Amino acid sequence: MENLPTLQEMDQISRIFKLLSDKTRLKILLALEQGERNVTSIAESVHMEQSAVSHQLKMLKDNRMVRSRKEGKTVFYQLDDDHVFDILEQTLEHIRH
């Protein structure tokens, strides 16, 4: 029991699972599995308006699930690190078990 998470870590864990509980955000994260994409490309793949996708991306970015870079006027997004997809992959493996 010595490796129990701190209260702050539990808050962060809870926040991550709340983010992942939204189907739209899940679709966005899965769309980014293939690599970096701009908002237009993400919006097309998840069949949503760019403004709605941008809002969800901001939430994901604020919680370090995705990161962005700007090239001219275009913003590109990608998963923040491999751990993000590991979480999704392990969850999928669990429900298929």
From TrEMBL:
It comes from the Bacteria. Signal peptide: none annotated. The keyword DNA-binding applies. Gene3D superfamilies: Winged helix-like DNA-binding domain superfamily/Winged helix DNA-binding domain. Keywords: DNA-binding, Transcription, Transcription regulation. Transmembrane segments: none annotated. This is Metalloregulator ArsR/SmtB family transcription factor. InterPro entries: ArsR-like_HTH (IPR011991), HTH_ArsR_DNA-bd_dom (IPR001845), Metal_resp_trans_reg (IPR051011), WH-like_DNA-bd_sf (IPR036388), WH_DNA-bd_sf (IPR036390). GO terms for molecular function: DNA binding; DNA-binding transcription factor activity. Residues 4-97 form the HTH arsR-type domain.
